[in-house]
Structures are given as structure tokens and as C-alpha cells.
Task: inverse folding
């Protein structure tokens, strides 16, 4: 992978960590309505996510690049195969501010987003959604943002 793109990706993951360190309380108050069980679920998910990011960021460039295809992160596209009918759908797990239902960009706080965040290829799970419970298998995972879309500086345009 291009070194410049990998550096931009690393920087984006670091920015996610900084966000959760510095803005999590405000973020949580704005997006999560229930302070009981809901708070516990979201807190546990964000804690696991931060730990995963720290582990990934501690790796060298080669291992970092490989990790981007081995776990669903914020900014990852993940192919989901519904076992009942073999139908496949691609979701991108994003922050709530970046959702776009027309392009299957789902919030990591949504019921489906919560279940997909931190999943790995070939993992199977029972996906719970508003339409019911469906067994699925996680297919390909790709970190969608690798620096191509948002250049690091103006010289890269």
C-alpha cells in the first residue's frame, strides 16, 4: 500500500481515538437517549473499539494494512451474506453524522451498526434488525477511507 495513503489512514484512526477521548461525553449526550442499559451497551462497545484501535495503531505498517481487512472499524465497508437466501449486502459503518441510507452508510450506534462494528471476515452471527433475526456471515471487510478521498494537504490535490 502507498506509504502516503497508509500514513493518512493511520492519522484518521488516531483522530478517531482523540475524538473518543475528548468528545465522547458530548457525543454520547447528543446521540444516546437512554442512560440505563443503553449507556452500558454503548460504553462497552466504545471501550472495546478504542482498545482495538490502540492495538492496531501499535503495529508496523504492514500489520496495520492487514488489520484494516481483518476487523470492521468506523469507516469500514463490510459485505454481509444472509444465510437464508444467500443475498449479499454491503454496509459501511460510520459515525452518526455520516449516515447515508441510500448508500448503506449506517451509524455504528444503529442496531445493525453495533452488531457489525468489530466483526471479522468469515464470522457468523445472528443479526437482529427491525425485521427480525437473521443468520449472516461476514464477508470481505475493507477500510473505506485510506486517504484517497480527503487529501492530507493541498499539494496532494
Result:
Amino acid at each position: 500500500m502507498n506509504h502516503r495513503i497508509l500514513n493518512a489512514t493511520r492519522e484518521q484512526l488516531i483522530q478517531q481515538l482523540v475524538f473518543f477521548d475528548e468528545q465522547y461525553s458530548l457525543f454520547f449526550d447528543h446521540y444516546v437517549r437512554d442512560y440505563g442499559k443503553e449507556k452500558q451497551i454503548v460504553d462497552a462497545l466504545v471501550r472495546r473499539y478504542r482498545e482495538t484501535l490502540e492495538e492496531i495503531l501499535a503495529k508496523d505498517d504492514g500489520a496495520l494494512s492487514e488489520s484494516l481487512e481483518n476487523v470492521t472499524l468506523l469507516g469500514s465497508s463490510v459485505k454481509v451474506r444472509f444465510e437464508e437466501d444467500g443475498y449479499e449486502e454491503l454496509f459501511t459503518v460510520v459515525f452518526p453524522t455520516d449516515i447515508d441510507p441510500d448508500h448503506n452508510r449506517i451509524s455504528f450506534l444503529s442496531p445493525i451498526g453495533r452488531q457489525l462494528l468489530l466483526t471479522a471476515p468469515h464470522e457468523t452471527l445472528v443479526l437482529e434488525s427491525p425485521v427480525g433475526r437473521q443468520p449472516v456471515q461476514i464477508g470481505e471487510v475493507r477500510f473505506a477511507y485510506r486517504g484517497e478521498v480527503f487529501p492530507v494537504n493541498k499539494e496532494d490535490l
About this structure: The beta strands are 76-82, 88-94, 105-107, 124-129, 132-143.
